[in-house]
């Protein structure tokens, strides 16, 4: 999770059968597609994975499956804190680490309530560190059930322990991102990954280790391309066009997500169902039409820039 090389860390979807069971064949194909796209790591068991709708056995099994398919090609991280006491969360963190993850991801809203002070949260973070026996940790500013955003000062004190190697930032504020990067800049083992594609290029230029965004569940190779070319002066016009593409289509990619993303991947040739366990709204004809417009816009963009499609997602805009 070093910040030396820019990379894309997918927030992975969980494919389901139409009866609601986890589709492990689909998960294999999906994992392989992220790897072929050039992902630098994999974030299994996250909000995009419908982690709150999986039970403990499924969380462990899904993560283990991703690790097996990845085969050591890239690091795999996974969320490990789902409420209860700090010691209960530490126990599941150790169970998840035993399946082979490279870092256990702590949801920032699970270590203190929305009305509780920062001091309570910070005390619980250090309790969790003490109770997890040296396991590498990361933070995820998950928006559900509420968002607790770390300050730069908080992140620094946690990173300074030498235990925190990853941070998924959802502050939506480039100045906060810059502040966090400034205070952690000299820690080679740590990487901040931004979730907010509106300022993706600015974040990468400021020193973010990469991007970890839902947009990669529509076109992962485009996120990889941006991470590789954000500062390529010869492609400045193309980079600006890609950045604007994400700004222009932000709303449609979040609407009825992750159903919309699964439908989009179906159009690209991925054999997965659109079934979701989450209550995300109705994927009606109006939403479907907006996704169709996004698909057309994506094809036009891929024809303008040189991005290779992903095997199993055969359109590639070519």
Molecular structure report:
The protein is 44% helix and 9% strand. The longest helix is centred in the C-terminal third of the chain and has 20 residues, at 285-304. Helix 3 (86-98) links the parallel strand 3 and strand 4 (103-107). An eight-stranded parallel β-sheet has the order 1-8-7-6-5-4-3-2. The chain is globular, with a radius of gyration of 19 Å. Mean pLDDT is 94; it is low at 314-318. The protein has 318 residues and is an alpha/beta fold.
Question: Which terms summarize this structure?
Answer:
12 helices, alpha/beta, disordered C terminus, 8-stranded parallel sheet
**Largest β sheet strand count, sense and barrel closure:** 8 strands, parallel
- Tell me the overall shape: globular
Structural class: alpha/beta
Spatial separation of the terminal alpha carbons: 32 Å
Share in helix? 40-55%
Order of helices and strands: EHEHEHEHEHEHEHEHHHHH
Number of helices: 12
Low-confidence stretches: 314-318
Strands in their spatial order, largest beta sheet: 1-8-7-6-5-4-3-2
Number of strands: 8
Strand coverage percent: 5-15%
Mean pLDDT: 94
Rg, Å, rounded: 19 Å
In short:
Helices cover 44% and strands 9% of the residues. It has helices at residues 24-37, 56-70, 86-98, 118-131, 152-159, 174-184, 200-206, 220-229, 236-248, 250-254, 259-267, 285-304, and strands spanning 7-8, 42-44, 76-79, 103-107, 137-140, 164-169, 191-194, 210-211.
